[in-house]
Fold each of these.
Amino acid sequence: MKIGVVATGHVGVVTAVTLAHLGHQVVGTDIDQEKLATLRRGRMPFYEPGAEALLKEGVESGRLLFEDSIGALADAEVTFICVGTPPRATGEASLLAVEKAAVEVARQASSQTVIVEKSTVPAGTATRVRRSVSRERSDIEIAVASNPEFLREGHAVKDSLEPDRILVGADEEWVFERLRLVYKPLVDQGVPLFETNIQTAELAKHACNAFLALKVSFANALSFLCERADADVVAVADVMGADKRIGREFLNAGMGYGGYCFPKDLVAFERLASQLGYDFALLREVAAINEEATEAVLRKVKDALWNLEDKRIALLGLAFKPETDDVRFAPALALAKMLLDEGAEVVGYDPQAGANAKAEVPDLEIVGSALEALQDTHCAVLCTEWDEFRTMDLPAAKAAMKYAVVVDGRNVFDPTTVAAAGLTYYPIGRPSFS
Ligand code: UGA
């Protein structure tokens, strides 16, 4: 099937390369010429494991093209809109790019087609899109559908090719049929396909992210309590997670969730609820606990070091989570800013996100390895649980540091090993020791 993908951000590129891998003829568009040139050369514009191999495969086979004009999608049978939906000052998602892209696809379409919302949008967006599209074109049938993505950065290729489920919201049977053809290779392998009305699909996507954020905040709130009660939040989460109804995933206490999805989607969902006349206060509490989780780490650093002026602090991991170079809403950078405001000198290392972090926080010194970051520091904070930190040589770390203080913002280290290395240790929601 001939498929269009508007915008080659994280979701767009992964959608394009995986659909081409499934055998479709895909054209991705963007206004960023530099990014298009990179993609045409078979190079990924950002770090996403496994994506570059599929990109090369698509480009070399001729099944995947990148163009700078939506006009190239005129004969696409389905076009996925993957533009950004950044937050407005009010917290609502800005849907300007969604509207513009959809209207342009409609303007250029040469025959009956489906415009699919892939970007996360508030319930009701498709109705607005449909209205804008029908004002633009009434001579051909242009349907609107919702097909939210559930991709995690760092696992986006696997999440696309082996998803837990596929969700399609539409109002017409021919639209469902067309999207069934898009996903046939996956459905044939047993992936469940949920077909709902559009509002349900839009709302379900928000509900999933909000519930996952709720789990993380629940674990973080528990960590505050465990510290006061001398209990261990990791063991509590293990016990909870053994109950199949609860599940162990997303119960890891830490510095809080970040990234471009949870923080902004949660606020957008709360704003949507409020516009619909429901005060979803629980969502505000989830966000408040998340901020508290990062502040709690700052308090640990202060507890260990007292005054922060003239202290040198290392941040291990800067990306909002491992396996990505994305630093948007990264708790590590929020902490870096707080430490810098307190007068500390802050040095950071991340296997992938150093350059992005520097662009966001210019006063942050970036170095090329964990050991280099630790050199002559008074404290190290583990902010992102990259695998290479799990296997760190702790005695070597101790030898490099001025004060051997480690704040483990992701509970990565085994307390017994840390104790044996003679470090002062502040984990999250577990007993600290020196
Ligand atoms: C999230 C969802 O997991 C995807 O299903 C969804 O498609 C995507 O948002 C989106 O809406 O586009 P992502 O933002 O890539 O994906 O990251 P996650 O792996 O979900 O992690 C989110 C944050 O929660 C990270 O900062 C992570 O460190 C944090 N987290 C996660 C915890 O603090 N504790 C946990 O136990 C799990």
Amino acid sequence: MANTVVSIVMGSDSDMETMKGAADLLKEFGVPHEVSIISAHRTPDAAQRFARDARGRGIKVIIAGAGYAAHLAGAIAANTTLPVIGVPLDASSLSGLDSLLSTVQMPSGIPVATVTIGKAGAKNAAMLAVEILALSDDSLAKKLEDYRVEMTKKIEEKNRKLK
Ligand code: RP5
């Protein structure tokens, strides 16, 4: 895979520490990706442009993370038919519940695949993106299977150590 196929966007540089988990996972799987800061509220024109241009640039999956009233994933989904995965971030005093509801509660016809709040969500968003890409990429599908096997082994090892 040579061209950039996954785009990770986040509302602010303050989201980077959490969203880095998505980029790290994609790197581990060898999936070419890009990372940008785009805000549904602070740079609404850029968000619209980004979403409208994404398919034409060869992007296949978009991962959007945001905190507070997290409209980034939804605003992007409104302007593209690419799959959009939303990561609700724990950025406010509501511990991410605000972002979860803002991200997940999309009206019918404009889906956002919403994952867990925070770090686990960033990683799962990347896993889901890899799973989508693996539908048409056998070598990626094999890497996913190997990853699962490794994950199982690690837990079994932890259990053994505990006994
Ligand atoms: C959201 O507001 C961003 O996604 C971020 O999680 C939150 C806070 O942004 P900053 O005020 O730190 O830039 O739009």
Amino acid sequence: MNRPLIIILLLAMLALGWWRLHPAEDGVRRTRLLMGTVVEIVAQGADAQDAVDAAFAEMVRLEKLLSRHVPESDVSRISASETGGEVTPETAQVIALGLEIAAKSGGAFDLTLGRLKSLWKIEDEAPTIPSQSDITKALAGIGPHALQLDGQLVRKRQPQLLIDLGGIAKGFIVDRAVDVLKAHGIASAAVNAGGDMYLLGSKAARPWRIGIQHPRSADAILATVEVSDRAVVTSGDYERYFERDGVRYHHIFDPKTGQPARRCQSVTIIADSVALGDALATAVFVLGPQQGLELLKQFPQTEGLIVAADDTLHKSPGWDHYEAAP
Ligand code: ADP
Ligand code: MG
């Protein structure tokens, strides 16, 4: 078994143990390993047990469509085909939003980085730094124009293109889990998939309070926000990375260089949907604080908190509206 998986399993066991000690007051708190991370759902309401079961089932179903690790997923099928093909409406929706963010971010967000991601193997037991010539090959012909969507038809401009929805799919899946909870009449819930969160309604008649972790100090809180019916999504360079000669190599890539993006340590986005927050957190991480805040201006009701590479903090104009005293 590889090291990250063992760590994740240990975390899951810890979380489960914690849940036994502290059952949610009048509701349900459950965790499951999905999408390569620990997913936790807390829900209050009469039908909470069934609602949470159904939400997890929906997440399992969607992961089978969107994961590049599932051979028969939409993503694997399109990647294996030389030209593309028909996908399910759900996958088309994820790709449509991904392509919109790709265009608006000038290609900083990119759904066609599959070969680059495979090359870097950031999450492997013994990751290596790829050669420049391999990076150049992995970047050849990729970019926002390499993929087209027409209804449910995906077209590849380049036969070897590998799709990777890793920067957006988790968010989309959390949104769908929340839809299932709502359909079961749940009015108060929190879904957290490794930093991709949605906070539904309120908690004990108050907004949900969310602590945002400091990117360089695991037990320090960078900021606390109070939100209701909002997504809070954080992308950072501190969860999946390795270090070589004092340099940190992490899993968010700058498509211009093929290297891990260097301008930020972490980006937190507050948005209406987790899918949008997820894609924007990744895009802003690549763009850095100045261009990143410019990008956010295109999205109403969307705020961001950025820790730049030089440790400086940057906030979008409306961020303070959500920030609470720690
Ligand atoms: P996490 O998955 O840890 O929450 P992100 O949402 O930032 O973090 O997604 C990182 C993942 O997104 C990477 O593992 C990779 O699959 C994909 N990715 C990396 N760089 C980019 C990029 N520039 N554009 C779109 N997706 C990316
Ligand atoms: Mg993301």
Amino acid sequence: MNSFTLSSPAKINLFLRILSKRPDGFHDLATLMQTISLADKITFTISEGRNDRDLLTCNDPAVPTDATNLIFKAAELFRKRTRLNFAIKVNLEKRIPAQAGLGGGSGNAATTLWGLNRFFRKPLSKSELMKLAGAIGSDVAFFLSGGTAYCTGRGEQIKELEKLKDQAIWILLPEFGISTPEVYRNLRLDECLDICPEELLSGFLQGQGQVCNDLERPAFKVRPELEEIKRQLANQGMAHVLMSGSGSSFFCSEADDKGREPKIANARMFKANFINRDEDEWYC
Ligand code: C5P
């Protein structure tokens, strides 16, 4: 078979601390990331040894289908690194919106690297794949972990963790996205939290984690509506309400397990749970 379909999950940041600005313009951060059941579906068809062009179709017209799509960037890096001669036809069924802080595009890139490596019988080791992933974007390497990881550096230094206790969560998607570079431009390091990330991590490992995100404050400056959404979710009895990554999505859990769906105007709501994968399997 030269065709296969893989699920490409979203992630949330259970905590996200920004530590410093680096000389390369990026920020050193420390974050606990978790993959969740909200996922895109990607079907790859590989033609080997031919000079066909890579092609991408997608159900969402807002998704770029040219060389800027991270799926093509991942395929190109894999081709260069392995010197394999192939082309890919990709059908991307998008459910994770762009600019939501859910790592949709990054997850698509990681899924492409993992899928190609399996198809070609593992020419690259996991650490070689992680290196390619780091060159695509700060969040891509995380998706090559087992689904729960403490990430530092730009986000690409991965410490894999045992899976956490599963948790039913609500994901809230506002009708607008937010630009990650713009959020970082509005970040002030002197306004960041003063909590040691290692302490936050050990709280989660002991089953009593405290969610927090240093990017909320700058994102609220860019889109003040986001602060209002957070307030409304808390008013509706939701617990652990937090923006994911650089926004614009939020996640929260029910304080009382009554299955009540929060209602926020002009926003979509998805029920999700934590997912993890075994070493030789992809997420499903
Ligand atoms: O690596 P990625 O493409 O996700 O980064 C998008 C933008 O987010 C960067 O251009 C940078 O402005 C900002 N960023 C940052 N520090 C990080 C990750 C991202 O400043 N650790």
